[in-house]
Amino acid sequence: MTISMYEASVPVFTARLKALADILSAAEQNALDRKIDPQVFLTSRLAPDMFALTRQVQIATDHAKGAPSRLAGREVPKYEDNEASFADLQARIAKTLDLLATFSAADFDGSDDKMIELKLGQREISMAGMQYLLHLAMPNFYFHVTTAYDILRHNGVPLSKAIFLGSR
Length: 168
Known about the structure:
Elements: H1 10-33, H2 38-42, H3 53-72, H4 86-100, E1 115-120, E2 123-128, H5 129-154, H6 161-165
Helix pairs in contact: 1-3, 1-4, 1-5, 3-4, 3-5
């Protein structure tokens, strides 16, 4: 049995974004319970040269909307990156989940060999769709979701692997 480009992307992004929404809900509740200003969590980072929680969520959703859009030959939706609260981040995730729900498996026909062209910083790259999905988009997506989780754990939010996996 083979796995399709659709199955390797849209359902995976969807499940992980739902788990990320649960993680953020747990963090918001934890801030309330511990009487911590939510901005402490939203602006926290693991190291001075890393992005804060809010930016981690923004970048994760960028990969979740960008990869399927590129693979399906659609314009990548632009988001403003102006989220300043847990509610704003939840709305961004919900908007991304709504977008993901518009894709079908047929949208990805032939995308494994389709050339994807991107600008990364100052350089432009071109790679086949499967290489792009498996070696660039998914690793980056997981990096930013995991870093968001790690920032919150580092700040004492009682999260578990189960919530990360979406099975709690």
